[in-house]
Amino acid sequence: MDAGLIADVLRDAVAIAIKLGGPMLILSMAAGVIIAIFQAVTQIHEQTIGFILKVSIIVTVLLISGGWMLSTLQDYARELFDLMKTI
């Protein structure tokens, strides 16, 4: 096993992690900014508003794209197991 193969596996792992976690992180971050602006304008500083909205956004994203995320992760795991067989 050479260093190039290990680097390729790690690069693919990071790319998959970004691809799977990116939508949830970006949407929850955007919701946080919108809530922060709303709270600054109205001077309502209730922390549960942001938490509940962020959790509901993350659950919605998981319900909508959970199947795609699972198939992507399964494909990557199959590639890793196939690679382990050849080594």
Write the layout of secondary structure elements.
Elements: H1 3-42, H2 47-86
Helix pairs in contact: 1-2
Amount of helix: over 70%
Number of strands: 0
- Described by the principal axes of the CA atoms, the overall outline is elongated
Order of helices and strands: HH
Structural class: mainly alpha
* Helical segment count: 2
Strand-residue proportion: under 5%
The separation of the N and C termini measures 7 Å
The main sheet comes to:
none
The averaged pLDDT comes out at 92
Rg computed from alpha carbons, rounded to a whole number of angstroms: 19 Å
Low-confidence stretches: none
List keywords for this structure.
mainly alpha
Q: What's the quick description here?
A:
By secondary structure, the protein is mainly α.
Walk me through what this model shows:
It is a single chain. The protein is an all-alpha fold. It has two helices and no strands. Helix 1 (3-42) runs antiparallel to helix 2 (47-86). The chain is elongated. It starts with a helix and ends with a helix. The mean pLDDT is 92.
